[in-house]
Amino acid sequence: MSSPALLLLAVLAMAARLAASLIGHPGCQTRCGDVDIPYPFGIAGTGAWGVNCSLPGFEIIRCVVRSGAGSLAVVEPVLADTNITVLSLSVMPRPEARVLLPVAWQCFNSSGGITNYSDATVRFNPAGVYRISDTHNELFVLGCNTLAYTNNGPPGRLPYSYTGRMTFCNDSQSAQDGKCAGVGCCHVDIPPGLTDNLMQFGDPNSWSHDDQDFSPCDYGFIVEKGNYSFRASDLTTMPRSKRMPLRLDWAIRNGSSSASVSCAAAKNKPHYACLSDHSECVNSTNGPGYFCNCTQGYEGNPYIVNGCTTSYGIDGTEIWIKF
């Protein structure tokens, strides 16, 4: 390989390393297991020169070690003050966190009495950062003769119902693989603005479950679109410990308040989050607040000084090579 070509490869590698260094603040941990942790997210703590590794509400509090396949140990990040596994975090072009949430369920004996249940309650939003994505998730209800619905509400108020669905079955042959229109399975889009996860089922006294060994449990869950396909065997074999992937929208918000600033107001505030040159502010479409993107022709992290780069170098500085 010629020396100019080697020089080009070296320059490209240097640019890649420089871009990677702009994921987070100096001295801050920017990876946990296989997951990048880009600012404004961060492992709890401070980095070099005492800078905070995350914005308030964006703490990925710790890396945890879980049991994987066989005897392997898996290191993975979890959201602050929860046990919610984080699968991925993105800053742009779409501000998003992909996580695993538990499935809600209730099971019955042969006379229709509830033997055990879990409403899969998850309070992952103490700082009001997240909203469950209404464009990338959907609600599923599995079971025979059941009603399930989500509950959600502002902190300090009683939850209020958002959306739900009913299912029914005539017998053990009613439900069919791949069919999810009300017989054994149904699904529906969810509205914007959901801040937490709480599933509830209808009154079992109004929905008979006598002698339903072909559907001994009901299930309810929100899941990323395209990540679940109904199988009739799920009515009897779905693990109660099952977790489903789900996508969360996030934004810079004023805690859980509905008075979060818009882009127009945020630019005049002392803690405006779009710090990089060649960055722009975008109003959130799922809940109040705003997020930042790099302008056209730039990529990287708009929440860090000089975080938006071109393919030529840092902050648009071109690298010329003479052959």
Description:
Helices cover 8% and strands 32% of the residues. It has 323 residues and is mainly β. A five-stranded antiparallel beta sheet has the order 10-9-17-12-15. Strands 7-8-18-11 form a four-stranded antiparallel beta sheet, with no helix packed on it. A hairpin with a 6-residue loop joins strand 19 (279-283) and strand 20. The radius of gyration is 24 Å and the shape is elongated. It starts with a helix and ends in a 14-residue tail after the last strand. The relative contact order is 0.15.
Average residue pLDDT: 81
Number of strands: 22
Radius of gyration, CA atoms, in whole angstroms: 24 Å
Give the strand order, joined by hyphens, for the main sheet: 10-9-17-12-15
Figure out the total of helices: 3
Q: Helical amount among residues, as a percent range? A: under 10%
Main beta sheet: 5 strands, antiparallel
Q: State the separation between the terminal residues, measured CA to CA.
A: 14 Å
Which regions are unreliable across 5 or more consecutive residues at pLDDT < 50?
11-20, 314-323
Beta-strand share of residues: 25-35%
Tags for this model:
323 residues; five-stranded antiparallel beta sheet; 3 helices; 8% helix; elongated
